[in-house]
Amino acid sequence: MTAQMPEKIVYQGAILELCTEPLEDYFAKGGIRPALERSTTALWRRYVGSWEVVDNLLYLTHLDGRLVDGTKITVSMIFPGFPEKVTVRADRSAEVGA
């Protein structure tokens, strides 16, 4: 089994690796997963999310990956109307808002 590329998180000003995948819980609960291009066996989920903790809330701030047509994926493609970031609550359900 190939080790997977971690998500990235900014916590108290430090950039760290996040070895969980909060966005996967959103998809598992019915969030629409776009068709993403597979780039490597080290990235089965086909994207890397960037996260930030602000005031004890977890925010998705950036996505790195490509759709099958080669277009770069953005947060607003998953959460239309919220181009910059979305809050993920403690129960990991997405709370769309910034």
Tell me about this structure:
The protein has 98 residues and is mainly beta. The chain contains 2 helices and 6 strands, in the order E-E-H-E-E-H-E-E. A 6-stranded mixed beta sheet has the order 2-1-3-4-5-6. A hairpin with a 2-residue loop joins strand 1 and strand 2 (14-18). The longest helix is centred in the first third of the chain and has 7 residues, at 22-28. The chain is globular.
Can you tag this structure with a few keywords?
single chain, 98 residues, mainly beta, 2 helices, 11% helix
CA(first)-CA(last) distance: 37 Å
Rg (C-alpha, Å): 13 Å
What is the topology, as strand order, of the major beta sheet?
2-1-3-4-5-6
Largest sheet: 6 strands, mixed
Enumerate how many helices there are, as a single number: 2
The chain-level mean pLDDT equals 86
Strand content: 25-35%
- Share of helix among residues? 10-25%
Coarse morphology = globular
Structural class: mainly beta
| H and E string | EEHEEHEE
Instruction: Count the beta strands.
Output: 6
Flag low-confidence runs.
Answer: none
